[in-house]
Design goal:
With 202 residues, this protein is α/β, with parallel strands linked by helices. The protein has one domain: 3-Layer(aba) Sandwich (Rossmann fold), CATH 3.40.50.1110. Helix content is 47%, strand content 11%. It is built from 10 helices and 5 strands. The chain has a 5-stranded parallel sheet with strand order 2-1-3-4-5, sandwiched between helices. The longest helix has 18 residues. The mean pLDDT is 94.
Length: 202
C-alpha cells in the first residue's frame, strides 16, 4: 500500500530530499511506525513529499509530479497555515476564494486522475500571543478546508479543534512551541489521530 504525505513544513519535518522515502522527524515518521506495528502483514510504502514554506498555490504547481504521477493508494494533505502566515506581517491576506480555488483544483485532480483515498488534515494554530491575530484570516480558511473535506475527503482530521481541546490540560507550547510547528509530542498527537482516520479506510 502506497501512502503519500503531502503538505508544508509540518509534513516536511526534515525529510530526505534525495529519497522521498527517507523519514523526517514529524508526524509521518510516527504514523509510519504505528501503522507498521498495527498491520505487520501489509506491505507499506511511505512517501514523504512535504515542502517547508508551501502554500496551496505552491502545492498546486507541483501536484502532477509530486502526487498524481505517484499514483498513491492513500494521500493525506495538510496545507494552509502558510497561506495565512506568509501575508500576516502586513495583513495583506490572501483572498479566500483564491485559496479555495487552488485547494479545489488539487482535490479535483486526485479524484479525476487517481484511485487514491483522501485524508484531509485541517490546518491549525495553537495559541501564542504573537500570532493570535492570524485568526482573522485563518478561521475563514479553516472553514473552506472543512467545506472541501465534505466534498472530497474520505476522512477528515480536524486538527485545529483537536489541538484546542488538548491545550486545555497542557499548555499550547507543549504541542507546538511557536503555535505552528509541532514539538515531538505534537507530532505524535497528529500521528495518533492520523492512524484513527486511516483505520476507517481499511
Amino acid at each position: 500500500m502506497r501512502i503519500l504525505f503531502q503538505g508544508d513544513s509540518i509534513t516536511d519535518a526534515g525529510r530526505g530530499r534525495e529519497d522521498a522515502r527517507q523519514l523526517g522527524t514529524g508526524y509521518p515518521f510516527h504514523t509510519a511506525g504505528i501503522l507498521k506495528e498495527l498491520y505487520p502483514d501489509t506491505a507499506f510504502e511511505f512517501i514523504y513529499m512535504g515542502i517547508s514554506g508551501d502554500r496551496a498555490e505552491s502545492l498546486l504547481e507541483r501536484w502532477e509530479t509530486d502526487a498524481v504521477e505517484l499514483q498513491p493508494d492513500v494521500i493525506s494533505i495538510l496545507i494552509g497555515i502558510n497561506d495565512t502566515w506568509h501575508r500576516a506581517g502586513e495583513r495583506n491576506w490572501m483572498p479566500h476564494d483564491y485559496f479555495e480555488d487552488c485547494y479545489r483544483k488539487i482535490l479535483t485532480d486526485i479524484k479525476a486522475k487517481t484511485e487514491a483515498k483522501i485524508i484531509i488534515l485541517e490546518q491549525f494554530l495553537l495559541y501564542t500571543t504573537d500570532k493570535a491575530y492570524f485568526r482573522a484570516d485563518l478561521d475563514p480558511k479553516i472553514e473552506i478546508t472543512r467545506k472541501l473535506a465534505r466534498e472530497f475527503a474520505d476522512v477528515f482530521v480536524p486538527l485545529d479543534g483537536l489541538f484546542a481541546a488538548a491545550s486545555i490540560k497542557k499548555a499550547p507550547t507543549y504541542w507546538a512551541s511557536d503555535g505552528v510547528h509541532p514539538t515531538a509530542e505534537g507530532a505524535k498527537f497528529i500521528a495518533e489521530h492520523y492512524v484513527k482516520a486511516f483505520e476507517t479506510l481499511v
